[in-house]
Design goal:
Elements (H helix, E strand, L loop, with lengths): L3 H13 L6 E3 L5 E2 L6 E4 L3 H8 L3 H10 L2 E4 L2 H15 L5 H5 L3 H14 L22 H12 L3 H8 L20 H16 L6 E5 L5 H10 L2 E6 L2 H13 L6 E5 L10 E7 L10 H11 E14 L12 H7 L8 H10 L3 E7 L1 H17 L1 H7 L2 H19 L3 E9 L23
Parallel strand pairs: 1-3, 5-6, 5-8, 6-7, 8-9
Antiparallel strand pairs: 1-2, 3-4, 9-11, 10-11
Helix pairs in contact: 1-6, 2-3, 2-6, 3-17, 9-10, 12-14, 13-17, 15-17, 16-17
């Protein structure tokens, strides 16, 4: 008798202590759960073994990446229902370890063990990062982490990001004008950064973590500045250099494969750091801020565009997201925006403006997911089915996290204000209700 789905539903509800909000379809064809809800497809018993040998988020991630589980229906709705269940309980999946003290929970685990079959731990999917020994955020470990995420093929990034090749939050127009193209919104973001930095012909801009060169090209072409862009990714650098040459900007844009800690040809008039500081790490952040302060001339501006998390009551309890760390951004860390501002000020900066554009990132991520899913066959051919699934899950889940204020993104404008106190900032740097880019 095909009854695996009902057994799974009962066991999961015992573990979670709440009704399962999604439907289950098991490998034997059985189904159980609320009609009309998105369906969690458990393709084989191996998915259960992954959960048993690595309880919590990492086990689920491995099952997803390997294709042992899937979602039939709207992925955002399914993720939202499951995430809502966890958030309402006030704990993450690691709380299941504490729950094992409950006899009913232990009985449910024994039931899963029996249903899972022979107790052999499945190997992690090949897309999971292989950890090397040593300290975090050294120049070598940072280069390895960046390569894991970015050196997967520029063709794949073209498919996901679109023609703009900007891998950070776009800047969308307000409704009812909203719904413009991703390319227009990314152009507006680059222009927003340029205006905050007050770029003008003849200036020197350092673009830290320059990606595929979009900010460097925009600043040189639209504002007449000379740009040095640095990245740790060989593939990004090669792609960016070709774009610079195609634009006829080789006399104004230099792309280097270089750690920002090794940049020694300051001072610069302005520095942009867009979506790079998440890789720095808490222990190195003051060093990062101090290095950028050193590279700016007095009166120079820094625009730091960075994802932030919500602060915790006990900050010492913070740990990185297991799925993101293992499959997406190895060694990446998020900090509350207040911590970022404090570290910039400790380095000597005067912070002049902090703008949250959280909702903009949710819109951006949904466009990236749509790009990926619209040409899924090509995506899986360019990388692997597992890596495409990594991107699909992390971008969809991240969109929900931005929408629900679990994480945010902020543009922090800071100045290396000289001893005279003359910051060079206008009295009304940002006026509420003004045109979008004014």
């Amino acid at each position: 008798m095909a009854d695996a789905a009902l057994r799974l539903q009962n066991l999961f509800e015992q573990l979670l202590g709440a009704p399962l909000p999604v439907r289950i379809r098991a490998w034997d064809g059985s189904q159980a759960g609320p009609p009309g809800a998105p369906t969690l497809v458990v393709r084989n018993r191996r998915a259960l073994r992954r959960l048993l040998f690595k309880p919590g988020e990492l086990g689920l991630a491995r099952a997803w990446v390997a294709g042992d589980i899937d979602v039939d229906g709207d992925l955002y709705t399914a993720l939202g229902l499951m995430a809502g269940l966890i958030w309402e309980r006030g704990e993450d999946a690691r709380g299941l370890v504490e729950a094992l003290r409950d006899p009913e929970v232990r009985a449910a685990v024994r039931g899963l063990v029996k249903l899972a079959g022979p107790p052999l731990p499945p190997a992690p999917p090949p897309e999971e990062v292989r950890r090397a020994r040593g300290h975090l955020h050294t120049k070598r470990s940072d280069k390895r982490a960046i390569s894991h995420h970015y050196d997967v093929g520029n063709d794949f990034y073209e498919l996901v990001l679109g023609p703009s090749m900007v891998y950070s939050c776009a800047y969308w127009p307000a409704p009812p004008a909203g719904g413009g193209t991703l390319e227009d919104a990314q152009r507006d973001k680059l222009e927003l950064v340029s205006r905050k930095l007050d770029l003008s012909p003849g200036q020197r801009l350092l673009d830290v973590g320059c990606g595929w060169g979009s900010m460097a090209i925009h600043a040189a072409r639209e504002h007449g500045v000379s740009v040095v862009g640095v990245t740790l990714s060989q593939e990004q650098a090669a792609y960016a250099r070709k774009r610079v040459a195609d634009e006829g900007l080789t006399d104004r844009v230099e792309i280097r494969v270089q750690d920002y800690r090794d940049v020694a040809d300051g001072p610069y008039d302005a520095i942009s750091s867009i979506g790079m500081a998440e890789h720095v790490g808490a222990e190195r952040y003051l060093e990062y801020a101090t290095d950028l302060h050193r590279l700016l001339k007095p009166g120079g501006r820094l625009l730091n565009h960075q994802i932030a998390r919500r602060p915790q009551r006990d900050e010492s309890a913070y740990s990185v997201d297991e799925f993101i760390d293992a499959y997406v951004f190895p060694d990446g860390e998020l900090a509350p925006v207040g911590t970022t501002v404090t570290q910039l000020e400790r380095a000597g900066f005067e912070v002049r403006d902090v703008e949250s554009i959280r909702e903009h990132y949710a819109l951006t991520l949904r466009r990236w997911v749509a790009n990926l899913e619209s040409d899924w066959a090509t995506a899986t051919r360019l990388v692997s089915p597992g890596r495409a699934r990594v991107w699909q899950l992390y971008m969809a889940a991240s969109a929900l996290s931005f929408e629900r204020n679990r994480i945010g993104v902020n543009q922090v404008l800071a100045v290396r204000t000289p001893d005279s106190g003359a910051s060079g900032m206008p009295l009304r740097a940002r006026v509420w209700g003004a045109p979008e880019l004014a």
